[in-house]
Amino acid sequence: KLSKRLETVAKFVPTGAIVADIGSDHAYLPCYLIHKGIASYVVAGEVVKGPFESAVGQVQKEGLSEKVKVRLANGLAAVEKEDHVDTVTIAGMGGPLIVSILEKHPEKLQGITRLILQPNIHAKVIREWALAHNWAILDEEILEEDDKIYEILVLQRSHMELTELEILVGPKLMQRKSATFIKKWTREKENWQRVLQSIEGADQTPEIDEKRAELETLIHLVEGV
Ligand code: SAM
What we know:
Layout: H1 4-11, E1 17-22, H2 28-35, E2 39-46, H3 49-61, E3 68-72, E4 87-93, H4 95-104, E5 114-119, H5 123-132, E6 135-145, E7 148-157, H6 164-169, H7 171-176, H8 179-198, H9 206-222
Parallel strand pairs: 1-2, 1-4, 2-3, 4-5
Antiparallel strand pairs: 5-7, 6-7
Bound molecules: S-adenosylmethionine.
């Protein structure tokens, strides 16, 4: 059974989409998308040999070799023009790694109309990247599974404007204020307060002062949620 996290990613894939799933590992998401009749064709990209081989094995086992193409490639290099991919999913990595994958081969994003990104941490850098590259947030989701909180961002090509707070916590998530959202930002705030307290008695150095100011700004910012 697919994790709730990947099931939520799948929920945002338009019916009939041609998908590239980058960093696919076992190719669970691509196989699910075909089985459920959501995607018509999926490219599963993996840069590491072990996961690449397990993806190939899974696709064969499920008899989906016609509909899921597994490729050993770095990031979006897995996408070829002839695939006509319109939707890219990247899940289960940190925000900065997801951004570096998006930035490495910008030409590969040309025909793409939707990005579904699931950063494990630092979703903020994805919102910053989206703002700078004319992608707008169509939807967002926050969910908890196995004691971890995950965010999912759905982007389409459009212009958006976000406040500092929205960049940090997500504009749609902030509107909805789900229990999981409140839990995440309460936790984060408590962590920052703890760190702030721990450096309270520390010597006055420019680095410590900077850290203190940074934490105070963040704490003040999330007070607005
Ligand atoms: N997407 C799956 C999920 O969400 O369950 C797997 C997540 S797994 C933690 C991250 C995978 O991304 C690993 O298998 C890793 O090898 C792969 N990966 C990391 N950087 C990559 C890159 N630049 N290109 C392709 N795959 C990459």
